[in-house]
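Input chain follows. Return structure tokens only.
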Amino acid sequence: MSFLSAKHFHNEAAAFAELESILWPKGPVCPHCGARNRVYELKDVRSKPSIKNPKGAPRYGLKKCAHCHWQFTVRAGTIFENSHAPLHKWFQAIHLICASKKGISSHQLHWIIETDYNSTWRMARRIRKAMQPGSIRPPMPGKGEGKNTRTQRRKFIDAAREHGADGDAATFRKAVRRIAIAPASKDKVAKKPVAGRLSSELQASGVVSRPDR
């Protein structure tokens, strides 16, 4: 049986349970106040109705802190936060990127996990950036990943081969723990258009005259 046939790669509730066991081995922790006790689970909660989900989408793994009354999931503070992609699709992408011997392109990845290309590109970019230790810089232009990313992926493959079939599960959990809490989740895209930045630089250098106001 393939490792990708595991339940947390195909079921969203199982994916949340798997991530909670990885990041919260001693129980849930409130990301707002840091409380460990009196954190309880909210069951059968759905989001607001929409055209896609008239009855509302189920909110898996929703927790509430009795100290600060903050509602949160295990996604909070990770690279999975503020992402519309299902968590089990993230798991598939992490495993395929880490386990691919020669790397995998975003286009090929979106074919395999069957998600929108733009979403897959952003997922792959976050994962690759998170695999670069101590850096949240994007990969060099024209390259899918940097030297540090390739090194981390090779370590993942070597560890899996060394421990046999059980190594896949152990190294996957280790990779998720490292990637999920990487500072790449705080990456922000500049809101100013590229054309506006170029015109400002040209005006500052004197190549283009600044219009009179």
